[in-house]
From TrEMBL:
UniProt family annotation: Belongs to the LysR transcriptional regulatory family.
Any one Gene Ontology molecular-function term assigned to this protein's record: DNA binding
Annotated ranges, domain HTH lysR-type: 2-59
Keyword Transcription regulation among UniProt keywords: yes
Keywords: DNA-binding, Transcription, Transcription regulation
GO cellular component, one term: protein-DNA complex
Protein name as annotated: DNA-binding transcriptional regulator, LysR family
Highest taxon of the lineage: Bacteria
Keyword DNA-binding: yes
Length: 312
C-alpha cells in the first residue's frame, strides 16, 4: 500500500524542482522529505531520484508515479470536500491569498465576519500578486485567492480553477491639484500624453497593465516613480511628481494636493475569488465568497450573478 504522505513528498519535488523547495512548501525539513522518498523507494522497489549536478532529477519510474500521485491527491481533496459538504459545517482551515488592495479594502471585514459566524474555521491569509497566487491555488498550496483583471485586459483562468465575482471596481485618475486638467469633470487618457506617471513595482500585474494601457492611449509611458501601495503613490502625486490611475477600492484617505478626476472612457477591474474545482463543494469556500461580497464597500457593484460553488 502506497503511503499518501510519501506520494505527496514526491509530487512536491516534481512540482517545485528540488528536495529543499518541496520541504519549504510542506513546512518540514529537507531531511524529512529525503526520508519519505527513501521509504517510498523501498516501498516501490524502484529508484525515484538521481543526482543531476547539484540537484536531483526524477527517474522514469518516478515520473510514472507522480502522474498517479496527482490524481490520487486530487481524489483525496475531493473526498475531504464531500465530507465537509455532507456535514454542512464551515470548519477546518482555509488558506487565502489576496492582492494588496483587497487585503486592505475587503479581507479584514470578511475575516471578521467569518470568525464571528464560523468560529471553527481558521483562515490563514497572505498577500500575493495575482500572477503568483493563481498558480499557488492550482498547485494546491492555497485554497483560494482574491485576484483582479481589467476590462481591457482579462486575466486567463487556468484550467481546473473556478471563480466567483466579488465586485467591479472603477478607476479614476489622481492628478496633482495644480495640474492644468485637475478641475475637469472627466478626462481622456490621451490628454495626459507626456505626463510623468507613478506605478506599482516592476513585473507586477498593475505595472504591466498600466504600461499597456497608456501605450494603447497613444503615448509611450514615462514612469518616474514606483511604489507598491496606493497610499504611497498618492503621497507622490500630492508632491507633484506624477499621475496615478487609482481604483476606487484602493482609494484610502486622499491627501491634500491631489485631485481625483473620472475618465471619460471608464476603466474598471473585476475582483473575483478563485478556487480549485475539487474544492468547490467545501462549505468554507462558499462562506468565504459570501463574506467577501458582504465586505464590498458601498457604491461598488457585487458579482451577484457570478459562478458560485455548488451547494452541498
Amino acid at each position: 500500500m502506497l503511503d499518501l504522505e510519501r506520494l505527496r513528498a514526491l509530487h512536491s519535488v516534481a512540482t517545485y524542482g528540488s528536495v529543499s523547495a518541496a520541504a519549504d512548501v510542506l513546512h518540514v525539513t529537507t531531511s524529512a522529505v529525503s526520508q519519505q522518498l527513501a521509504k517510498l523507494e523501498r516501498e516501490t522497489g524502484q529508484k525515484l531520484l538521481e543526482r543531476n549536478g547539484r540537484g536531483v532529477r526524477l527517474t522514469d519510474a518516478a515520473e510514472l508515479l507522480v502522474a498517479h500521485a496527482e490524481r490520487i491527491l486530487s481524489l483525496v481533496e475531493q473526498a475531504q470536500a464531500d465530507l465537509e459538504a455532507h456535514r454542512g459545517s464551515v470548519v477546518g482551515q482555509l488558506t487565502l491569498a489576496a492582492f494588496p488592495t483587497a487585503v486592505r479594502g475587503l479581507v479584514p471585514s470578511a475575516l471578521r465576519a467569518l470568525r464571528a459566524d464560523h468560529p471553527d474555521l481558521r483562515v490563514l491569509l497572505r498577500e500575493e500578486d495575482p500572477m503568483r497566487s493563481m498558480p499557488l491555488v492550482s498547485r494546491g498550496d492555497l485554497d483560494m485567492a482574491v485576484v483582479q483583471d481589467w476590462n481591457n485586459e482579462p486575466l486567463p483562468l487556468p484550467e481546473g480553477l473556478h471563480k466567483g465575482v466579488i465586485c467591479d471596481d472603477v478607476a479614476d485618475v489622481a492628478l496633482p491639484a495644480d495640474h492644468p486638467l485637475a478641475g475637469r469633470a472627466a478626462i481622456d487618457l490621451g490628454e495626459l500624453s507626456g505626463d510623468p506617471w507613478i506605478s506599482s513595482v516592476p513585473d507586477s500585474i498593475c505595472c504591466d497593465w498600466l504600461l499597456r494601457t497608456l501605450r494603447a492611449a497613444g503615448s509611450e509611458p514615462r514612469i518616474d516613480h514606483m511604489a507598491y501601495e496606493f497610499a504611497t503613490q498618492l503621497s507622490l502625486v500630492a508632491a507633484g511628481l506624477g499621475n496615478v490611475i487609482l481604483p476606487r477600492l484602493g482609494r484610502c484617505d486622499v491627501p491634500p494636493g491631489v485631485a481625483i478626476v473620472p475618465l471619460s472612457a471608464p476603466l474598471s477591474r473585476r475582483v473575483y475569488a478563485v478556487w480549485r474545482e475539487e474544492a468547490a463543494r467545501r462549505p468554507a469556500i462558499r462562506a468565504a465568497v459570501t463574506a467577501l461580497r458582504a465586505a464590498v464597500p458601498a457604491g461598488l457593484p457585487t458579482g451577484v450573478r457570478a459562478e458560485v460553488p455548488a451547494p452541498a
